[in-house]
Amino acid sequence: MSILEYNGGCVVAMAGKNCVAIASDKRLGVQLSTIAMDCNRVFPMTDSLYLGLTGLHTDVTTLHNLFNFKLNLYAMREGRTIKPTTFASLVSSTLYEKRFGPYFAEPVIAGLQADGTPFLCAMDLLGAMAVADDFVVSGTCAESLFGTCETFFRKDMNPDELFETLGQSLMAALDRDCISGWGVDVHIITKEGVTTKSLKARMD
């Protein structure tokens, strides 16, 4: 088993029309043993920018705290809120500078740009960016997520359609992965604000 799969978990982000959504499962495990059923892998960075982290949970917590610190420093120095594209570059450079002793975490970034267009980006543990205009996935059930997201995704979905599509895609993929599950948290980001919804999934 890869160290990235040690604690399980997955994150997926998907774009809609002037909206974007990011979701993760709630299980925290040690290999096949479940430790907690309320694990949070998706963190708000700004009002319209969210960061999802999968991988070794200790590194997930470390990176979350590190990026909070760096964003506070950026806001103090620059006097403005960071753009999603700038934040993606910050995450990438932070991971790459530790490439010889990397953080065992793979980020997913989802946010709205100033003109309302969605921004989606995923990275490996060395910070190599993959920007997409439809969806990005990360975690232990990534292969299943690619299949379900490609099946259900449609362009220009409104927030309600996006929630339904993303939720069903992730729940279908969770049924095929024994180290993820125990429910889903979905965050829908629009110009008006962020809506968070929870779904029940397989509880075993």
UniProtKB/TrEMBL annotation:
Origin superkingdom: Eukaryota
Gene Ontology CC terms, in alphabetical order: cytoplasm; nucleus; proteasome core complex, beta-subunit complex
Location, primary (coarse class): cytoplasm
Subcellular location per the Swiss-Prot or TrEMBL entry: Cytoplasm; Nucleus
Annotated CDD domains: proteasome_beta_type_3
InterPro entries for this protein: Ntn_hydrolases_N, Proteasome_beta_3, Proteasome_bsu_CS, Proteasome_sua/b, Proteasome_suB-type
Alphabetized UniProt keyword annotations: Cytoplasm, Nucleus, Proteasome
Pfam families registered for this protein in UniProt: Proteasome
Record's signal peptide: none
A Gene Ontology biological process term: proteasome-mediated ubiquitin-dependent protein catabolic process
Family classification: Belongs to the peptidase T1B family.
Subunit structure, as described in the record: Component of the proteasome complex.
Function: Component of the proteasome, a multicatalytic proteinase complex which is characterized by its ability to cleave peptides with Arg, Phe, Tyr, Leu, and Glu adjacent to the leaving group at neutral or slightly basic pH. The proteasome has an ATP-dependent proteolytic activity.
Protein name: Proteasome subunit beta
